[in-house]
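Quick one, probably user error.
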């Protein structure tokens, strides 16, 4: 009789322990919070482009997007001689006031609407570009002619094509924005410039000029910075 009672108690305790262990192992699920998402428009009163005359070597004054309605970048080629006439570098500036200073960037991209792509002749070859992030503490907005050659913090390679004309183009800038965020910058500034070394070393590329829509009254096509952060 005692063996039966003690045996029953032992079985009951074992089942209780198994039940508790199983509950702890299977029932506790930690769900991470979703990232916060923000869309930030660039500032057309600060966006713009700067042109270098390849004949004279002179750098012109910045052209502001709020006045021109666009941002240009690339090489302007003479349709007569086929020689490069000028190089233009385009700048977009996004305020970061809506992102907490201690935020961790999960993903970021810039989407631009390409109004036009200019070549000497129609081409399907890629136009090689670099996208630089600029230190807005050392080189704060507004644009100055000296920003044409301002040192970059991080750069990445990309290409534009003739088929991009009339379409939206998205560019991953996660590493560039994460660096700017870590640096405590109030603004995120990027520079589009023609990748001359890549053009010289890669015969499949070509020269060309892109036009990015940046009209202050047409927000549906304005450059936008999409950000996911924790």
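Nope, works fine. Designed sequence:
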């Amino acid at each position: 009789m005692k063996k039966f009672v003690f045996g029953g108690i032992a079985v009951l305790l074992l089942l209780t322990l198994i039940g508790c262990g199983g509950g702890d192992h299977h029932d506790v699920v930690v769900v991470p919070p979703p990232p916060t998402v923000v869309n930030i428009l660039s500032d057309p009163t600060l966006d713009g482009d700067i042109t270098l005359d390849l004949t004279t070597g002179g750098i012109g004054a910045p052209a502001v997007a709020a006045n021109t309605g666009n941002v240009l970048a690339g090489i302007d080629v003479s349709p007569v001689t086929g020689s490069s006439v000028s190089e233009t570098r385009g700048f977009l500036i996004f305020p970061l006031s809506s992102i907490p200073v201690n935020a961790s960037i999960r993903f970021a991209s810039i989407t631009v609407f390409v109004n036009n792509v200019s070549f000497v002749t129609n081409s399907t070859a890629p136009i090689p570009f670099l996208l630089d992030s600029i230190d807005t503490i050392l080189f704060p907005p507004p644009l100055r002619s000296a920003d044409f050659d301002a040192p970059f913090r991080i750069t990445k390679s990309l290409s534009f094509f003739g088929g991009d004309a009339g379409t939206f183009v998205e560019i991953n800038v996660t590493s560039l924005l994460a660096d700017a965020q870590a640096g405590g910058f109030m603004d995120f500034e990027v520079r589009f410039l023609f990748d001359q070394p890549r053009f010289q070393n890669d015969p499949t590329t070509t020269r060309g000029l892109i036009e990015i829509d940046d009209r202050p009254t047409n927000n549906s096509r304005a450059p936008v910075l999409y950000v996911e952060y924790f």
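The chain has two domains: 1-30, 36-229.
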